[in-house]
Amino acid sequence: MAYPGHRIGPNGETYNPTLKAPKEINLEQDCMVLNTAMKGAGTDEDAVIDILGHRTLKQRLAIRDHYKATFGEDLIDKLTGELTGNFEDLVQMLLKESATTKAKALYKAMAGAGTKESVIIEILCTASNKEIRDIKRAYVEDPSRTLESDIKDDLGGDFERLAVALLQGVREELSEEQMEKLKRQGIQGILNKQLVSKDVEDLYKAGEGRLGTDEGTFIRILSTRNVWHLQAVTKLYEQKTKKSLMEAIESETSGTFESALKFTLLTCLNRIEAYATLIKEAMDGLGTADSTLMRIIATRCEVRADLVDLGNICQLFEAREQQSLEQRIREETSGDYRKLLLALLGSRWQE
């Protein structure tokens, strides 16, 4: 069962998808359309977009299975031979479980010389307990390795400690009964005020209230407490110290650990803002971090488990940037890749 807390925002708002997909599909017809699109010279990319850009993951996986049963070929392999570039990558992503996509990204981030810490932060610092479990199961590129062992081999110091803590997937989650209480009474109805006060005191003593920093206390609290508890901790911390918890982290930590800790906290306080920030950063500066952009859009565009908030991300992006995400994507991307991204956003993609 999906954890309901990830379908409801910290202020009780419901998260919304962007994907426009029919409730029922004709598997045979969809497979025939895709097969016809790949026949002869060239490929009918619009036909591919019209199908894959308007189907849920469950429907897309069923199409992949039915295609193999009908034509004796894996749909991903067939499309890979027909498509190129970012369009090919996004199509492949849409035909795999999101955990597989994220596990593959983590594997690549730690493969070879150097480590792409930004990918690790993007995926691990934003993940729910269920996502963590699914990603760990999907991390099977090399049977002799695990995600945790690779994290320990590639990272170091406090960033490694935080990543390993997040990988345990033990953040507190509310029961159905507590969620109902939250809806009726608001955040005060579910808070353990004594624990909130203790966490504020512990965080202060671990950072601003001492010489040096006890990073372990920050890791423990930020990787295990539920999002509403951390919202209350942040508010009380600022009331008592006249400084925000985010500012305290900035002054007490540094480097990649600081970035990861801040992003973990931001995700807990406002997950929509965290993803809007990731999307903005992916398109800022020279070039576009296409892997990040397509990962977020592909995995958060539909009502599926706890991945259902792209509609809200679009709203916040537009409010902050004074430009819609659709318009920004039209400016930053091109061709069939742009069309498929727009389809997943529920936008007019054939223009």
Describe this structure in words.
Belongs to the annexin family. Homodimer. By secondary structure, this protein is mainly α. Among the domains are: 99-167, Annexin (Annexin V, domain 1), CATH 1.10.220; 176-269, Annexin V, domain 1. 64% of the residues lie in helices and 0% in strands. It contains 21 helices and no strands. It has helices spanning 27-37, 45-52, 57-71, 75-80, 85-94, 98-109, 117-124, 129-138, 147-154, 157-167, 176-185, 193-206, 215-224, 227-241, 245-252, 255-269, 271-283, 290-300, 310-321, 325-332, 335-344. Helix 2 (45-52) packs parallel to helix 21 (335-344) and helix 16 (255-269) crosses helix 17 (271-283). The radius of gyration is 22 Å and the shape is elongated. The two termini are 39 Å apart. Residues 1-6 have low confidence and may be disordered.
